[in-house]
Design brief:
With 423 residues, this protein is α+β, with helices and mostly antiparallel strands. It has 2 domains: 5-153 and 307-372, D-Maltodextrin-Binding Protein, domain 2 (3-Layer(aba) Sandwich); 155-306 and 382-419, Periplasmic binding protein-like II (D-Maltodextrin-Binding Protein, domain 2). It has 17 helices and 13 strands. The protein has a 6-stranded mixed sheet. The chain has a 3-stranded antiparallel sheet with strand order 10-7-11. A hairpin with a 2-residue loop joins strand 8 (220-221) and strand 9. Helix 1 (5-19) packs across helix 16 (384-401) and helix 2 packs across helix 13. The two termini are 23 Å apart.
Length: 423
């Protein structure tokens, strides 16, 4: 999900309180379940749809195309602020007053499926065209409960002009290469910090995990959480080394000043999502787009990154199930996805939509598409938000006080075992 740091703090706090009380129905695990086929023919009737943030404000315009294709159908969209969304959903589920369909944050899928609120993906909706990592965000156990609507992933942003001063004409492709280039940015290009990395705290797991996945780590083993493993330890040690070696700022603020620091050259590299392109170009001014580029996450065993975005689901309580799923199918159509990118700049989850000239013609966007082919998502356990808050806390000790990463991960594993998966 794309959010500001303030919104992230609010959502994680809310989710942690809610998830501790949530169980999970027995039918969400085990063998994959599939929903009843969507009927042929045009959609009819009126459906209610909830969507958050800017997407919620823009979706009514896109829905007009669906109504034009299905003259007997009507889509009523309610826009919901991100910071109120989680509670609104859980209250509606409890009261059995959910919308027919909705945009849902990827990290909420396990919880909502656990409450037996979501309708499994119909067997005649083909999910093979989505980016694999994005499609995985819709699954709880082996069952898919929706589609990935739009996606985002994280790349390495770097100042190409300062990289040349540091002696580099290309982006690093390995862990050692990244560290060497970051140090050269300090020593030869005048940077205060070689690369901006989040120094622990809320959401820092999203900085750690691209390195962990690149090292081959998995956060799930035999249906349980797995934090105390060699691959994650290797990534945590590498992550820590940027701070202990003085390459990254261990005193960086919770809400970093990424754009001005990048534009000034104070911090000439950072890792973030596609929304930062317009942000840094706005601050950098005219011509700044030619002073930076993006690259895939440097690899240990492979290049991988975090896949986020939002899914789209249909609720079990819907009285207009067929029309709701037909609307979801409409949102997954490559032409619709390409048009939605033009309206929202949300990246398509359907791989073929990237052939559209608006995306294929942008060299920086191409790299996001390439990274999405190997990007991964965290486990869909209902307790994920609660458990990962402990990982954030321990990583802050690792980055800011030099705590032992092995001991930190053992603590996280013990806490995760105590909390459980919620299954």
């Amino acid at each position: 999900m794309r959010r500001t740091p303030t919104t992230v703090l609010a959502l994680v706090a809310t989710a942690a309180l809610t998830l501790s009380a949530c169980g999970r129905s027995e039918d969400t695990g085990g063998a994959a379940a599939q929903g009843t086929d969507v009927a042929d023919g045009k959609a009819t009737g009126t459906i209610t749809v909830w969507a958050m943030g800017a997407e919620g404000e823009k979706l009514p315009e896109l829905a007009k195309d669906f109504e034009a294709q299905n003259p007997g159908a009507k889509v009523n969209v309610t826009a919901i602020p991100w910071d109120a969304a989680h509670d609104k959903f859980t209250t509606a589920i409890t009261a059995n007053s959910t919308p027919d369909a909705a945009m849902v944050g990827t990290t909420w899928m396990g919880e909502f499926a656990g409450l037996d609120a979501l309708d499994p993906l119909p067997s005649n909706i083909d999910a093979s065209g989505f980016f694999p990592g994005a499609q995985e965000t819709t699954k709880v156990g082996d069952t898919s409960y929706g589609i990935p609507w739009y996606v985002e992933t994280r790349l390495l942003y770097y100042r190409t002009d300062l990289a040349k001063k540091a002696g580099y004409d290309e982006a690093p492709t390995t862990w050692q290469g990244l560290k060497d280039m970051a140090k050269a940015m300090q020593d030869k290009a005048g940077a205060k910090w070689g690369i901006g990395l989040q120094a622990g705290g809320t959401g820092s797991w999203q900085t750690l995990m691209p390195f962990a996945w690149s090292a081959g780590a998995s956060l799930e083993k035999d249906g349980k959480y797995s934090f105390d493993n060699p691959e994650l330890l290797k990534a945590a040690q590498y992550y820590q080394s940027f701070f202990t070696d003085g390459i990254s700022d261990k005193a960086a603020p919770v809400q970093p000043t990424t754009e001005p620091d990048f534009a000034s050259g104070k911090v000439p590299m950072f890792i973030s999502g596609p929304w930062m392109m317009s942000a840094v170009e706005k601050v950098g001014g005219e011509g700044f787009k030619d002073k930076y580029s993006v690259a895939k996450i440097p690899a240990d065993k492979q290049s991988s990154s975090f896949v986020g975005g939002s899914d789209f689901v249909v609720f079990k309580s819907s009285k207009q199930r067929d029309t709701a799923w037909k609307f979801v199918q409409f949102l997954a159509d490559p032409k619709t996805q390409a048009k939605w990118y033009g309206m929202s700049t949300d990246l398509p989850s359907v791989q073929s939509a990237w052939d559209d000239s608006a995306l294929a013609g942008d060299e920086k966007l191409k790299v996001f598409g390439e990274q999405l082919e190997t990007a991964q998502a965290p486990p869909s356990f209902p307790t994920w938000e609660q458990v990962v808050a402990n990982l954030d806390t321990e990583m802050e000790k690792v980055t800011k006080t030099g705590a032992d990463p092995a001991a930190a991960l053992k603590t996280v594993q013990q806490q995760a075992d105590s909390i459980g998966t919620g299954q």
